[in-house]
Every structure is written in C-alpha cells, then in structure tokens.
Design goal:
This protein has 258 residues and is mainly alpha-helical. The chain contains 8 helices and 2 strands.
C-alpha cells in the first residue's frame, strides 16, 4: 500500500474511531434520558471540531453539554420523553385491547415517534452554542419532511443502532456515534455548496483536432465548405496533395476507372 492511500485510510479510520468514542460519551451523558438532546448536540459539536482540525476533547464535550442544557435542552428532553411515553402507552393499549382501528392507530403512532426522533436528531446536529432549542425544532421538523433522502439516511443510522443493540447491548453506545455521523451527513447535504463543473482539459484533445468555432475563425473570408462528394459504388478514394476548395483532391485508388 502506497503512502497516500495508507494515509487516507488511517484518516478515515480515525474519524470512525472518533465516532465510536463520541457514541460512548453520548450514552453516558444521556443516562437520565432527559439529557439526550443536549448530549446529541454536544456530540455533534465534538465531531465537527475533531474533523475540522479544532481543539476537541472530553472537556470541550462537557462544556458543550452544559451549554446545550442551558439553551433549553432540559425542556426538549422532557417533551421528547413524554412523547415517547405517550406512544408506548398507545401501543400497549392497542396490544391489550382489540379496539376497532387499533392497528392503523398504532402504525400512525410509530410513524409519529420515528418522525419526532429524526426531528430531534436533525435539531441536535444544527445546534450551536447560544441557539435556543425552540428555534431549532420547527425548521428541523420541516427538513425531516421536505428532505426524505436525508431522513432516510438518519433512519438507516437508527436501524444500525437498533441492530447493534439487538446483537449485543455493549454495542449500542458506540453505535450512537454512527447514528450521529449519519445525521451530520444528512444535514451537510443541505448546506454544502454546489460543486462547479470541471473545465475541459486541452490535453484530452487530439493534436490535430480543433474546435469548430476555432476552425471557422481561421477560415479565409469568402470560402464556404462544399458538400461532401457522393459515394461511388466500386470506387475507393485517397485524400492527398493540394487542390480543390479545401486544398485536397481525390486520387484514384485501386480499381478506379477514368
């Protein structure tokens, strides 16, 4: 493996390891559950700093966690926990009592919980120190609906986290970092500037080929290209010499009869 691909591989592996470590920090900080939004916001800020060659570490993560809690993280966590409890009670009621229309209601409740989770994740990745959560939740909810591709990317991160937790419980905390990385990628799709198309490379053009506009600009005035000679059955032509309107004339090839 050459030096450049090896360095690229090590850089990408370092980002992956940082995501796993950030997931462990988020899991520890979100143990009360009401601190989950603030923990996600602090983790997203840590990943942006670490990938942007800025100072990052556990001390900065703790400072961002406190700032996110002060900006309304407590109330956001309480509201999210209450919504999940309401959805769980609705699902338990539908399972216990065969009420009419229970299954469609349960499906709608599950979709609502999924939408709330995607909204919370997108709002957490958009948080910056000093921004109130109330101003982030509304735009995040609209982005969750208007950007289905990005929301699907976040849902795939949720699926990876759920699959890791089902296989082994210790895998769930590191998987939270992968979930947060997928949410950051979904948000980056909306804020990244469009890439300008690359200009045509002159070296790819053959040595004798010229663009049509260049050839037209260097053509002598008053001369127009004539029509192509009609094909003759049984005749073959070779182009060479001088003469004719474009400096070429047909020479008889083999099998030519005057």
């Amino acid at each position: 493996m050459s030096a450049r691909p090896r360095g690229r591989f090590l850089a990408r592996f370092e980002v992956f390891a940082e995501c796993l470590l950030t997931g462990v920090w988020i899991a520890v900080a979100a143990l009360p559950l009401v601190t989950l939004p603030a923990a996600l916001a602090a983790g997203a800020t840590h990943l942006r700093r670490s990938t942007g060659d800025q100072q990052a570490g556990l001390r900065f993560f703790a400072a961002d966690l406190r700032a996110a809690l002060r900006d309304g993280g407590w109330s956001t966590g309480l509201g999210y926990a209450a919504a999940l409890a309401l959805v769980g009670a609705d699902l338990a009621l539908v399972r216990a009592l065969p009420v009419p229309g229970g299954r469609p209601t349960a499906a709608l409740a599950a979709l609502a919980a999924l939408w709330l989770t995607v909204t919370l994740l997108r709002a957490a990745t958009a948080w910056r120190p000093g921004l109130r959560w109330r101003s982030l939740l509304g735009p995040a909810a609209r982005r969750a609906l208007r950007d289905p591709a990005g929301s699907l990317l976040v849902i795939c991160g949720l699926a990876v986290t759920a699959a890791s937790a089902s296989l082994s419980a210790p895998l769930a905390p590191p998987a939270l970092g992968i979930l947060l990385a997928s949410t950051l990628a979904a948000e980056h799709r909306l804020t990244a500037p469009p890439v300008a198309p690359a200009p045509p490379v002159a070296g790819n053009r053959s040595a004798g080929a010229q663009p049509a506009s260049h050839a037209a600009a260097h053509r002598a005035p008053g001369l127009r290209p004539g029509p192509a000679p009609p094909p003759r059955c049984g005749h073959s032509f070779r182009w060479g010499g001088t003469g004719g309107h474009d400096g070429r004339r047909p020479l008889p090839g083999p099998g030519f009869r005057a």
